[in-house]
Amino acid sequence: MSSARVQVAPPVPPSPIRLRTREAIEQEIQRRVDAERARLQAHVAQQRSREHFQRPRELPFTAAERDRVTILFGGLTSKHEWLIKSAFQSAGYKVEVLPTPDVASFQLGKEYGNNGQCNPTYFTVGHLIKYLQHLESSGLSRRDIIDNYVFFTAGSCGPCRFGMYEAEYRLAVQNAGFDGFRVLLFQQTDGIKAASGEPGLKFTVDFGMGAFNALNLGDIVNDIAYQIRPFEVHEGETDRVLHEVMDHLTHTVRDRRKFEIEEHAPAWVLKQLHRKKAVRDTVNILGKIHDHLYGRQTIDALAAARERIGGIDVDRLRVKPVVKVTGEFWAQTTEGDGNFRMFSFLEREGAQVMVEPIGTWIMYMLWLARAQKVYRKDIDYPAPKRTDVKGRLLRELKFQGKITGFSFGNWFWNHQYGRVVDQLGGLAHTLVPLKELAAHAAPYYNVFARGGEGHMEVAKNIYYTVNKKAHMVLSLKPFGCMPSSQSDGVQSAVMSHFKDMIFLPIETSGEGEINAHSRVQMALGEAKAKARLEFQQALESAGTSLDDIRRYVDAHPVLRRPLYHVPHRHGMTGTAAQFVLHVSDLMNGRARFSKLPGPAPRGRTMVSASASA
Ligand code: SF4
Fold first, then answer.
1. Low-confidence residues of the chain, pLDDT below 50?
2. Are 463 and 437 in contact (CB under 8 A)?
3. Which atom of ligand 1 has the smallest separation from the CA of 482?
4. For the chain, which has fewer Cβ within 10 Å, the N-terminal or C-terminal residue?
5. What is the three-class DSSP state of 353?
6. CA distance 555 to 360
């Protein structure tokens, strides 16, 4: 820990009692008890004179420094990071994204941090140190680094080790010789605030909506990438196209023209508004929110991206097991050594990966806050007497006001997420319903047990199995993760109740990659067999040969477009099996061709942007 360890003088080892009489033995025991009491009392007195641990005072990050100080952040997927960086830049901040954490970061985390942490702590803490050392080796002095850089990260009050991240960062930067380096927190509960309380990082509507769009776009473009890449006809085309799409989207987030009511409202309205500043500000905020979500700049950028993605050539007849990746938040998100580069490994091994959007975790936070409010209603809002009708009514109004806030937040995020999914061609998945997840988990796991992913690891395993959305669930759980260890204990009971479940938990750490990959290969073998059997059954029920299906697809190029909508068959998991059934319906006149999403408006198509954000 960062505070000095309290040293207790060791007790004097007892010498064997060789006294003969009972009285002498009693006296000797009394003497030793007195000696031990004196030792402990001296220790307590020494402790009382010590000062309580105080968090070290930190240099503030002030508004005046915004042009000079660079904000560092990282820890998500590269697509999220590109987009969030653009949201920061759009708000006028200097910002740098840390590269993906690797094993060297993990080792630095172990060297400069506390012992006994969970794996993501080592990776992320060491990662910051690695970057600061890189800055130093590029010629900057430590003083320059401390004065001109700050680190922005998420924080929490627990209950798992996430609550200790802030302290870990501070300890590690201190141990590595960057004492005084500033850490800014995005608190799960309080929003953004500098640990020092200074408003260097200001939460404006434009910044908030930019970050909101960035998170959703990052989730959805990631999902699209993993759904197209396994079926791409021309190797590397998906990554190439999505790189251009990301370039375009990041430019849109970064360079968007900000809405100001003065540029849109007629003069007579402005005259009225200027008389009432509060009304003017409210209207301006609503206009900004609308512009970020529904404005021309956003809609055109999405349409251009959709058109570009829609041009990729795919072959959906490749039989691939669908592998849903779940687990701890960071382990299931990072794209590097922190999870043994699991996503690229799975794809190389022939799987179609279903990644987890960050949106699910945000929905979980909202769901949990609402569920706790409902559960604690009688504690937080004590019921007045039965005869106090007015009091009871007011109590209900207050309570419903809170609940409605959570319900609105949940509806709003899901609705906007679904809109962006549609605008980008309808290929990505919508967010999973948290109510259904909680219902699946409840028989096995207390849904109010917080920390990490809470009950979601158990719930997702059941959800993706019973709804036949994945052939296999792979849970990435960091070494030393407390909530994941709890889930692990429960998963064996879950597996014994769902016989056709293929579930593999993998403990991620700084080492053991070969072992982890070989375990995944074994489970993947089973999932592949499941996918092949399903495909065979689909072909048999279609009553058509694979060659006939292929010929039909070749004659109808629209079926090779990734955004062509293949209707979902309940009970079918694999992309190839679903596709075969749909094509056979088309061949036999039982179905009509789905309509492709419309092209981008004329003059709004995507030009390959030259510079990345
Ligand atoms: S969820 Fe697990 S791995 Fe993540 S911060 Fe908490 S204890 Fe660490």
1. 1-6, 188-198, 607-613
2. yes
3. 7
4. N
5. strand
6. 40
**546 Cα to the center of ligand 1, angstroms:** 47
Ligand 1 centroid vs 529 CA: distance in angstroms? 34
Per-residue DSSP letters for 512-527? -HHHHHHHHHHHHHHH
Alpha-carbon distance of 364 to 413, in angstroms, equals 12
Alpha-carbon Rg for the chain, nearest whole angstrom, is 29
Percent helix / strand / coil, the chain, rounded to 5: 55, 10, 35
Distance of CA 229 to the CA centre of its chain: 22
Beta bridge partners of 508: 478
As beta bridge partners, residue 97 has 73
pLDDT of residue 277: 86
Task: Give which of 527, 529, 593 is closest to 555, Cα–Cα.
Answer: 593
Give the contacts of 24 (CB within 8 A, at least 6 positions apart).
none
Ligand 1 neighbours (beta carbon < 6 A): 118, 120, 160-162, 328, 330, 451-452, 478, 481-484
Amino acid at position 452, single letter = G
Q: Tell which residue, 264, 261, 259, has the closest CA to residue 288.
A: 259
Q: What are phi and psi of 91, to 5 degrees?
A: -85, 5
| End-to-end C-alpha distance for the chain, whole angstroms | 39
- Contacts with 311 (C-beta within 8 Å, 6 or more apart), sequence order: 241, 561
For residue 191, give the amino acid letter.
Answer: G
- SS3 state at 322: strand
Please report the atom of ligand 1 found closest to the CA of residue 484. 2
What pLDDT was estimated at residue 16?
63
Query: What pLDDT score was predicted for residue 595?
Result: 86
- Cα–Cα distance between 290 and 294 in angstroms, integer? 6
- The amino acid at 359: G
The string of pLDDT tens digits covering residues 250-294 is 999 999 999 999 998 888 888 888 888 889 999 999 999 999 999
User: How confident is the model at residue 6, as a pLDDT?
Assistant: 46
Asked if 504 and 445 touch (Cβ cutoff 8 Å), the reply is no
How many beta carbons lie within 10 A of that of residue 141, not counting itself? 10
Tell me 338's DSSP state. G
pLDDT 10s digits, 93-149: 999 999 999 999 999 999 999 888 889 999 999 999 999 999 999 999 999 999 999
